[in-house]
Amino acid sequence: MLRCSLLLSLIALALPGFAHALDFQVDFRQSTYQVTAGDAFLDLLAEHQSGALIQDNVIESLENVSTSVHGGGVTSNYSILISTEFTVDVAGEYTFQVGTDWGRGGVAALIDTGSGTVLDERVLTGNLWWANNWNNPSVFTTTHDFEVGDQYTLAWVGFEDCCGGASTLRFSIDGSAYQNLTAGNVGPFLLTPEPGVATLLLLGLGGLAATRSRD
User: Fold this and answer.
1) pTM for the model
2) H helices of 17-57, where?
């Protein structure tokens, strides 16, 4: 409980004023981990953060995110963390999807930023390759009803063995047509703090998971 309180205090101190913009943190690290059926988001976040950093990025579009652009050209044995933190400015049912190439599996998670609680997560353990088909079972889908003022962190963690394919993310609100997840497309619906707050939250959560695993 003390560790959770400390984490939330650090997040509160880091939160600046909000602006109409959205940034995404994309973090590549060395990893040979294989996702298993017993894994949860916090386990996989800790596994990712335990690897040596390859390259981290703050970008404005999650379309064709690949190691060739954002990961130093590495094509095998790596993990990727994609995350963003925001405050809801327009209420509705939001759906986020990620099509990816993660040969060792991965996870999608929705986190309440204020409490650090993981509200929703989906873990897939197989060789994930969506083949540019949004109906493919390898696609992660996260749907949640958002209210104005709610603060959330979205995070995706994946593990790749070879070949270094690209990831693309898109979103829909209240059943509208899907749009690529870019700052320009989603920005009018959300408020977001300065870059780095989502990273602070996830580092804290990963640390808690690592501490828990040693207890």
Assistant:
1) 0.82
2) 41-49
Is residue 85 classed exposed, middle or buried when 0-12, 13-18 and 19+ CB atoms within 10 A define those classes?
buried
Q: Token pair of 100, please? A: 């990816």
- 92: number of Cβ within 10 Å: 17
CA atoms within 13 A on the CB side of 34: 5
Neighbours of 41 (CB within 10 A): 22
SS3 135: coil
Dihedral, 112, 116, 121, 126 alpha carbons, nearest 10 = 140
Res 50: pLDDT = 95
- Mean of the per-residue pLDDT values of the chain: 84
Buried b or exposed e, range 113-126, using 16+ CB within 10 angstroms: beebebeebebbee
Whether residue 6 is predicted with pLDDT greater than 50 in this model: the reply is: no
Here the tokens at position 59 are 């970008």
Question: What does the pLDDT look like over 117-146, one tens digit per residue?
Answer: 999 999 999 999 999 999 999 999 999 999
Cβ atoms of residues 67 and 28 within 8 Å: yes
Q: Tell whether the model's pLDDT for residue 178 goes beyond 50.
A: yes
The angle, 0 to 180 degrees and rounded to 10, between the axes of the packed helices 197-214 and 2-14 is 170
